[in-house]
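hi!! sorry for the late reply, been swamped w classes. u asked for the two structures so here they r. pasted raw, havent cleaned anything up. first the sequence of the first protein and right below it the C-alpha cells
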Amino acid sequence: MDCRLAVSLMHEYLDDDLSKDQAIVLKGHLEQCPNCSKLFHELEQTDMMLYAAQHHSFAAPDELTNRILNSLPKPKKQQVWLTWIKQHPAVTAAAVFMLIMVFSSISIWNSDNQLVVKGASLDQVVIEGDTVIVPEGKTVAGDLTVENGKTKVYGEVQGNVTVIDGSLYQASTAHISGQVKSINQAMDWLWYKLTNMFTEVAYY
C-alpha cells in the first residue's frame, strides 16, 4: 500500500468511516512501515486529546481568572443624586415642576406693577391713582385685597385686608373685623398665590 493512501485511510479509520477490509489492509501496512505507524500513533493521541477536551470541562486557575477580571475596564460609578433621581421619578418631576413654578412666579411678582383690587362691595371704595381708599362711613362686606398699591382704610371692612407689595394705612376711625396681612416678600406672595389657587380649586 502506498503511504499517501495509508495516511488518507488513517483519518477515515479514526472517524470510524473505514470498512472492515480496508482496516485490515491499513493495519498490515502499519506493521510494515515504521513512519506510517509513528504518524498513526500521533494522530491517535491527538484525536484522544480532542475527545477529552470536548467531553470534560477544565477550570481555569484562580490566578488566571483574577488576572482577566482585573484587566477588564471598571464600570463607571454613577453619582448618588443621579441614582436617587432614577429611583424616585415622581418626586423628581414634582420638584422640577415646583422649581419652575417658583421661578416663574417670582419673575411675574418682580415684573408686575399693575394695581389690582379684589373683593366684594368694590363700589364702596375709591381708587385714586395707585391708592385704594375705604372712606369713612363706607363698609366693604367681605375681604379686600390690594396688589401693587397703597391702601387707606377710614371706614369698615367686614373681612380680611391683604396688601401685596404695597402699604397699608389704618385711620383711628377704621374697623377691620378680619385679619390684616401685608405681603412684601416674593416667597410670601408665592405662598399666598398657591393657597389661593388651591382654595379656588377646592371651591369649584
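now the second protein. again sequence first, C-alpha cells right under
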Amino acid sequence: MDINPPKCTDIYYINFLIAASNVFSCTEAARCYPNVANAPSHDSFTRLLQRQPSDTESLWREVKNYVKPEEGCLIVDDSTLDKPYAEEMAFVRRMWSGKHHRTVKGIGLVTLVWTDGKTVIPIDFRIYNIDVDDKTKNDHFRDMLDKAEERGFNPKFVLFDTWYASVKNLKAIRKKEWHFLTRLKSNRLVNPDNKGNVPLETVDIPQKGRVVHLKAYGFVKVFRIVSKDGDTQHWVTDVQEMDEAEREDLAKKSWKIEEYHRGIKQFCGVEKCQARKEESQRAHIMFSLRAFLRLELQRIKSGISWFESAMKIRRVAVTAYLKNPLYTLN
C-alpha cells in the first residue's frame, strides 16, 4: 500500500521560524505559506510537531558537519524560556530567571554548545522536567557530556558556571580525561596550605592564581577576579599550569552561550510556541535550534549579524507593502 508523504516537512517549519517576527503558531505558519497547490494546512504543521522523535538526533545530524570534535570547547548552561501566560502547558513550572532576577513561569532549557571562539553551535539539549523523568539539571549536564563523548568529542575544555560545579560533575569530567574551567561559590571549602579546609573567600589568592586542594576533588588552580563594581568571582580549573591570560581567553569563550541564548529567543522564536503537548513543545525547541544554526552559519560565511539577516527578510515584506498599501483613506 502506498503511503502519501507528509505535506509539511521540518524545513518548512524551520524557514517559517527564521522569517516570522512575532507569532509562531502552526496556524500562522499555514497562513504565511505561498498560495500553491497542496500547500500545508495548520493541521499539517501540527502533525509535523507531534510526530518528531523525543531525542536530539535530527539536530546532531545537521550540526555535526560544522563542528570539530577534537578542537574547541564545550559549554553547558541553562536558560528559562518565559511562559508568563501558560496554562496547562507541558514542561512549564516556576523557576528562577536570570533575566528577570526573580522566579517566573517558564520552561527550563539546558543546552550543550560547541565553540571555537568565533562560532557557537548547539549540539545537544535537554528540557528540565524533573517531575516526570526525575532528572536534575546536573543529571542532564552529565548525560549530555556522555553523549558528546559517544559522538567523538574530545574538547580542549568544558566551560560552565557555578550551578554545575559540583564535585560529582568535576569528577565526571576528569574521568573522561577532559579539562574544565568554571566558577566556584565563595563558600566552597579548599585547603590552601595543608592545615585544613577553609572557605575560598578567606584564602589569599595572588593575581597569577593559586593551587589549592578542593574538598572531595583534588588539587585545582583558582583565580580571584574583582570587577570595577566590586563583584568578586572565583574561577577554577584542573589545569594547574594555566596563567591569567589563558583563563581570561577561556572566560570570554564561555560567554558565547549567553549570545546563543539571546539569538534563539530574539530571532528563532524558541519561547513563542503556544502548543500544550510535550511532543509539540519539544519539537518546536528543536526546530528553533536548527533555525539558529542557519543564522549562525550565515553570520560566519558573510559577516552579516543575526539581526541584519532577519531584517533583510522583513524589508522585503515592508517594501512590497509600500508599493501597494492595503490600508489607506479613501
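hope this helps!! also noticed smth abt the second:
The longest strand covers residues 102-115.
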